[in-house]
Amino acid sequence: MPQLSVVIITFNEEKNIARCLESVLGIADDIVVLDSFSTDTTESICKKYNVNFISHKWEGYSGSKNFANSQAKYDWVLSLDADEAPSEELKKSILKAKEGSELKTYKFHRLTNYCGSWIKHCGWYPDTKIRIFDRRITKWAGIIHEKLVIDSKQEPTLLHGDCLHYSYYTKEQHLLQVEKFSTLAAQNLFEKGKKASLIQMYLSPVVKFISDYFIKLGFLDGSAGVTICKISARHSYLKYKKLRDLYS
Asked: Quick one: which of 36, 84, 130, 164 could link to 58 by a disulfide (CB 3.0–4.6 Å)?
């Protein structure tokens, strides 16, 4: 049976990490947790489990994940964020895949929990991710919303079941993340020489809200859908405002 390493990066994830680790105990042959010097109880929680816990300086999302993959015991890797956990159906699918003579590149859907509500629309689902791969031919790339670059023409196989994503516990937490990510996005655009007009800055959030709330049926997610669509629109506005500020 092929063996699988589960790789997780952490920083102050005491609310999430135990759930994540518990969820992979039956499918992992090796667990690596790469921690960027957490100041909460993340480390002590991890050390209650049979994991390879490594403290390492933050190298950005892609850099840290690539380094974490290099510390795995096996070449086939399941990459998870600390706030994620495979559903029971997904775990069964992974175990079934491991029963074969060799693993493939796999993807699966991600279902997000937002402040206690499961979000099925707003452009947040199915949010399909490639997360099981051969690290020898795969690298993470990108500053934010990092993506996998795979040196293979083989199409990833879709596994049944969802990866449960416990994203935000409060609206305030979401707003703080938007501040962070919009700054990174603006800096990334600035470094590429991109510019934003006043029309783009003010029109893009309107287009984003209409797209997520009406076209992508965010209204079906109730009050959580309204909040998500408003904050997503704010992210679009802040990204371009901060980009313009970099040129001032």
From this structure: 36
Burial (CB < 10 A; 0-12, 13-18, 19+), residue 214, is exposed
Confidence (pTM): 0.94
Q: How far apart are CA 98 and CA 3, in angstroms?
A: 7
- Cβ contacts of 140 within 8 Å, gap of 6 or more: 61, 62, 63, 65, 66, 69, 146, 147, 148, 149
Those residues of the chain that have pLDDT short of 50 are: none
User: To 10 degrees, what angle do helices 198-210 and 222-247 make?
Assistant: 170
Task: Report pLDDT for 181.
Answer: 96
**What pLDDT, on a 0 to 100 scale, did the predictor assign at position 1?**
81
Cα separation, 32 vs 12, in Å, equals 16
List, for residues 28-71, the tens digit of each pLDDT value: 999 999 999 999 999 999 999 999 999 999 999 999 999 999 99
Output the CA angle 147-212-141, nearest 5 degrees: 10
Q: Please, what is the average pLDDT of the chain?
A: 97
Q: Scan for tokens 């589960």, then name that residue.
A: 6
Element (H, E) at 56: none
Q: How far apart are CA 226 and CA 129, in angstroms?
A: 25
Alpha carbon distance 178, 163 (integer Å): 22
Give residue for tokens 């901060």.
Answer: 242
User: Measured between alpha carbons, how far is 112 from 106 in angstroms, rounded to an integer?
Assistant: 19
